[in-house]
TrEMBL record:
One of its GO terms (cellular component) is plasma membrane. The lineage of its organism: Bacteria, Pseudomonadati, Pseudomonadota, Alphaproteobacteria, Acetobacterales. Keywords: Cell membrane, Heme biosynthesis, Membrane, Transferase, Transmembrane, Transmembrane helix. The keyword Cell membrane applies. This is Protoheme IX farnesyltransferase. The gene is ctaB. It comes from uncultured Acetobacteraceae bacterium. Belongs to the UbiA prenyltransferase family. Protoheme IX farnesyltransferase subfamily. It catalyses: heme b + (2E,6E)-farnesyl diphosphate + H2O = Fe(II)-heme o + diphosphate.
């Protein structure tokens, strides 16, 4: 016989992680605490705010500012998962998150979130200025204390008011460069603020059973599916002209205006499909909420494409 001899179980032992070898599944759980899918849009909106700001920032400081926005958003997400672990455990969509599933201890998640949040604010203040750091701190506090701990479990307007937390990144990015806040980042704030309800209500239409089971008064649970469909349409109708404000105010050009119009008309078409989807007498979908699911997915693409179009005129002058 050729080759080296092995004792029973040697092959099995060789496949086990040795001391000091990181468990990638555990690393993935800590990353999941940061809500990375939410973080992508937050970071991108902050980046656009930074790029649109007059003046400039050293590339290292700009990268630090974007990293701090990401850490702040991730820290807030981890605190949210710590606080919401009881309702996450009874919702199918969230039951496998690291804290309710028991893979990360609640105290560890809280410490992780607080540590990241504090570090992000301190580093941003040292790297850029106090206005940017204060804006980031306020957005984190608003998401944790106003939305997560106060509004979410008490009112169907939770996502309307609480959506302000996710609208702050362009202000933080802008302030990182300028050291102040002006009309332009406030307009970008308003666009995200108006986008959040139709985006999130589209999700809550097809996840309403989860929210009902957890006792969270999302609009479909509190007011019914038909009222939610109407609100999605009305907010989208308000969002489309608002999205043209950067062009109307002169800090984005005609290429942006064309992109915003086309993207907005598509969003309106999706919202109309949600309103007109086959329903029962209570407004509940007879088509497995297909239109709401498509609207939710498109809303993510919409916001990313809309903000990507803001600096478009610098590359494609018309």
């Amino acid at each position: 016989m050729s080759g080296t001899a092995t004792t029973p179980g040697q092959g099995a032992r060789a496949s086990l992680p040795t001391a000091g070898t990181p468990d990638l599944s555990e690393v993935g759980d800590w990353i999941a605490l940061l809500k990375p899918r939410v973080m992508y849009l937050v970071v991108f909106a902050g980046l656009i705010g930074l790029l649109m700001a007059p003046g400039g920032l050293h590339p290292v400081l700009a990268a630090t500012a974007i990293l701090c926005i990401a850490l702040g958003a991730g820290g807030a997400g981890a605190i949210n998962m710590w606080y919401d672990r009881d309702i996450d455990a009874v919702m199918r969509r969230t039951a496998r998150r690291p804290v309710p599933a028991g893979r990360i201890e609640p105290g560890a998640a809280l410490g992780f979130g607080v540590g990241l949040s504090v570090a992000s604010v301190v580093i941003l203040g040292l790297a850029t200025n106090g206005v940017a750091a204060a804006s980031l701190a306020f957005s984190i506090a608003f998401y944790v204390f106003v939305y997560t701990m106060w509004l979410k479990r008490r009112t169907p307007q939770n996502i309307v008011i609480g959506g302000a937390a996710g609208a702050f990144p362009p202000i933080v990015g802008w302030a990182s460069v300028t050291g102040g806040v002006s009309l332009e980042p406030l307009v970008l704030f308003a666009i995200i603020f108006m986008w959040t309800p139709p985006h999130f209500w589209a999700l809550s239409l097809w996840a309403h059973a989860d929210y009902e089971r957890a006792g969270v008064p999302m609009l479909p649970v509190a007011s019914g599916a038909r009222a939610t469909r109407l609100q999605i349409l009305l907010y989208t109708l308000a969002l489309v002209p608002l999205s043209l404000a950067p062009w109307a105010l002169g800090f984005a050009g005609p290429a942006y205006a064309v992109a915003a119009t086309l993207l907005g008309l598509r969003f309106l078409w999706h919202a109309w499909r949600v309103w007109r989807e086959p329903q029962d007498a209570l407004g509940r979908s007879l088509a497995n909420d297909a239109a709401a699911k498509k609207t939710f997915r498109y809303s993510l693409l919409y916001l990313a494409a809309l903000f990507a179009a803001l600096p478009l005129d610098r590359l494609v002058p018309l």
